[in-house]
Amino acid sequence: MGDERNMNELVGQILASAAREGLWRSGEHILVAVSGGPDSIALLHILHTLAEQEGLLLTAAHIHHGLREASDEEAVTVRQYCAALAVPCAYGQLDVRAHQERTGQGTQVAARELRYDFLHATAAQLGASRIALGHHADDQAETVLMRVLRGTGTTGLSGMRMRRRDRGVELIRPLLEIPKAELAAYCREHRLPCVEDESNAERYYVRNALRLDIMPRLETYNPELREALCRLAELAGQEDDWIESQTEHYYERLVKREQRGFSMAREDLLGLHIALQRRLIKLILYYLSPEQEIVSFARIEAIREASADPSRSTWHTDVGAGLRFVREYDRLYWLDQSIHNASQGMPYQYEIIRREGRVVVLETEPPTIFELATEPATSGEGTPTSRYEAVFDAQTLRFPLMIRNRRPGDRMAVLGLEGTKKVQDMFVDAKIPPSQRETMPIVCDADGRLLWIPGLRRAAHALVGPESGERVRIRVRFA
């Protein structure tokens, strides 16, 4: 009677976890991964027991990895048990060895990759919105300890999540808070058919060695080590969720979407706590390449340190997966190099024939709008109102004017200076980011004389004086 009560408590605990974590909703189709071991067999039995009450449609999925002779027996056991429950069973046979030869991966990594590919493909084919996995509390403890040994951050300490979205499907782990011993007792109580995987005793695999040798040794110092590791995962997961929400908040406030990626002000990044700086860099890289495993502590720290270093003004590094980080003075950029900016480095030129009108330069980001207007000599002051406005003596201008980007060797007779100065040097002195120098517009006259670089400098030619007649006023704004 005590065992029956305990089993009912176990199912009640799973129901409580499902309600708390939102593991499923009534009417959903769940694909249940069933290996044939006691964990996955117990999972299938529990979900089948709850299916009518919870309004769930179940399909089992069994995968033959082609690595062990016992796999044939497991496949028969799972199929027969599914038939006894009247639960459909999707079956997949994988060639792990061939995948290893193609990718150079280890056996467990290759098997896991193919296994998840099959589960996702089957879920998509069936229209299942959830994939249920049989990981339990002992698996969680081993995962956390293994990540500690390999080196991890807060996210890694959170271990496996009870619910996680992956490739458009929810991965759920209803047994994650249940110890393996309780699941084994559940299987015995209900006389469920289980097949033990003999490879679980092979110490060749790191996880097996950790479970068989390292964990028992550590438990001599702390008999409740597994519970402690699971509690650590829970606490780390909750704190990780909080800092992730804070990171999303600052991403929305501080990060700007660019044509080829993202950018933000250097001072905005450095104004955050170091923990948030790292998380924000990681989040931006994830948004640029969600399918690629490119994020490492070393990469994130290199970007953070380069952003903070006061001795650096411009700096760049390839992050991986075709991504690049660029610091240009006080602006930081994360760019996808596969997105080609057709205007970058390409010459452009617009001709202005009339003294009035409007020209839009599309090559800049954002597009630059030039507005020309003719004014009589009697219409007030002939001085500009900002760095983005210039006034010229119409009689000494040689039309047509040209708006173009810079050319090699460009020089300007700058107002207030003797002689001429290279445009390149002017850009450097003004700390114009290198990525903007190739598209920045320059106004020239028909003789090729440089007249004005909006926002930067104006030439001494065609100045308005007491003897000037009509004036041409050019204003610049941005689309």
Relevant terms:
479 residues, Rossmann fold, alpha+beta, five-stranded antiparallel beta sheet, six-stranded mixed beta sheet, 22% strand, 15 helices, elongated, Phenylalanyl-tRNA Synthetase, Chain B, domain 3, 22 strands, Uridine Diphospho-n-acetylenolpyruvylglucosamine Reductase, domain 3
Provide structural commentary.
By secondary structure, the chain is α+β, with helices and mostly antiparallel strands. The chain has 3 domains: 2-235, 3-Layer(aba) Sandwich (Rossmann fold), CATH 3.40.50; 255-336, Uridine Diphospho-n-acetylenolpyruvylglucosamine Reductase, domain 3 (2-Layer Sandwich); 349-478, Phenylalanyl-trna Synthetase, Chain B, domain 3 (Phenylalanyl-tRNA Synthetase, Chain B, domain 3). It has 15 helices and 22 strands. The strands form 5 sheets. Strands 3-2-1-4-6-5 form a 6-stranded mixed beta sheet, with helices on both faces. A 5-stranded antiparallel beta sheet has the order 7-8-11-10-9. A hairpin with a 2-residue loop joins strand 5 and strand 6 (169-172). Helix 6 packs across helix 10 (225-254).
In short:
By secondary structure, this protein is of the alpha+beta class. Helix content is 41%, strand content 22%. A six-stranded mixed sheet has the order 3-2-1-4-6-5, sandwiched between helices.
Can you lay out the helices and strands and say which pair or pack?
Blueprint: H1 2-21, E1 29-33, H2 38-54, E2 57-64, H3 70-85, E3 89-93, H4 96-103, H5 107-126, E4 130-132, H6 137-150, H7 154-157, E5 163-166, E6 169-172, H8 180-189, H9 206-219, H10 225-254, E7 256-258, E8 261-265, H11 266-270, H12 274-288, H13 297-308, E9 314-320, E10 323-328, E11 331-336, E12 349-352, E13 357-361, E14 368-375, E15 389-393, E16 401-404, E17 411-412, E18 421-422, H14 423-429, H15 434-437, E19 442-444, E20 450-453, E21 457-458, E22 471-478
Parallel strand pairs: 1-2, 1-4, 2-3, 4-6
Antiparallel strand pairs: 5-6, 7-8, 8-11, 9-10, 10-11, 12-16, 13-14, 14-22, 15-22, 16-19, 17-18, 19-20, 20-21
Helix pairs in contact: 1-8, 2-8, 4-5, 6-10, 10-12, 12-13
